[in-house]
Design brief:
The protein has 301 residues and is α+β, with helices and mostly antiparallel strands. It contains nine helices and 13 strands.
Amino acid sequence: MENLVSPLIKADHTVVDEKQLLDDSYAYVAKIDDLTRHEFYYISQKIEQGWITERDVELVKFVHVHRWVTLSQITRLFFPDVERDETVRKRINRLLKYGLIRRLQWSSYSRPKENKPSFYELGASGADILKFQYGTYLGHRDPRNPKPITMLFRMRYIATNELYIQLRESFELVHFEFHPTLVINEAQQVPTAKFVLRNPKGREMSFYLICHREDEKWVKTIRYQARFFKGYFATIDPEATLVVLVSSDEKANLASKIMEQEGAGPITWFVTDNDLYDPNIKLSKAFFAYQNGVKFYYDLQ
């Protein structure tokens, strides 16, 4: 398997193929913060005294649903008017200290010397706020009771959250839901997310998102998904569009061929990490499809 690289080798240069940042099968957790052990009484006092603000609690709620985010994503969502990065970092450090969130640092055998953005997830005190103050059932989303998770699984959320942020900035986003359960006859499918946009005339447009990373089963999975969504849209949601989020044009091209083979080409759009993270490309012009093997972009403005 690709990721079984000996951890004792400390080469000056990598001999494995370089991977896309959020599609890296060689990625591994380098360090994760310990869980804090604050009693909820202590945290509730900090809330009453204003040391933990309403915005902090909203950030906790967001991280619970969106699972993993980067500092850049947190800044754009919760500190858009703060001019100094240092101010945001101080606030994040306070949230880390109180245990509302915690930080995960990672590396990769693909790009060992390249700095990677830390991921932030729900912390123990953040889980207590949700559980005791809002009655939220956490299950395996409680950081003290997690399921085994791969880095590629986390990267799916980071890429999806980047799309979510840009959707909010570029369109009127009226709905965004993770993992809705779709059923048709005996078949069932759980896409990465469903989102609804409203155009200037007030019409709402539904999209189902599937996000794929570099795992060994993604080609087989997307073939099954193409068959399912072709039938689901035909019988249940005929005006919906399937959006496939992959890391690169090469993967989008491969996925499009599978979609065409299964008859799902006309209902499928694509968007890539490359386009999402290119500052010169607006999301309204980042969705594309293929026609007779030729790629063309939509202009959604």
